[in-house]
Amino acid sequence: MTLKRTTRIAVAACAFALLASCDAGTLTPERVGPPPPVGTPVIHEAVDGLLVGHRLMAAGEYELALSAYYRAASEHGLNADVLSAIGSADLKLGRLGQAEERLRSALLLDPTSVPALNNLGVVLMNEGKIPEAKGVFQNAFALDSGQSDVIRKNLTAALAAMDKSAYDQPQNTSKFSLVRRGSSSYLLLSTP
């Protein structure tokens, strides 16, 4: 076959496909599919992306949680809670640079966000920036009025890391815990 003949055949096939799709009866509502099973709940509005992300984080599904947090960003905008949540998911995925950037952005929007402060401290500890992490943990502890055990433990570990004589072994950062904000209360994530 020559190139000219192949081109004519391809044009004819495309024209035939276009004409076949123009049939008025091909996209009628009767051909959509069977109805849903009886008793299927009707969902009128989607579940909040932050709530879904928090549940996925608790289940250890960090990549899916990150997707849910991005969906929440499209719903709520990039507010401090959303940025803090995205930073926490990035931290759990080992993306320390991205996590630090998101958490610092959250703190620019809300400098009193205790979860963002705590999680930034965790990032800084993982990056080996212990003096800065200690200051961030102290700030979180003060804003929280010392009520969170997780923040207290993180601060204690950071202070111990600063004191060479009390902490001679290599630092194990896996004991640091993340804090996230739910609906007007602090929810604590356990470290898997």
Automatic annotation (TrEMBL):
Gene3D superfamilies, per the entry: Tetratricopeptide repeat domain
InterPro entries noted in UniProt: TPR-like_helical_dom_sf, TPR_rpt
SMART domains per UniProt: TPR (SM00028)
Pfam families: TPR_19
Name by which UniProt lists this protein: Tetratricopeptide repeat protein
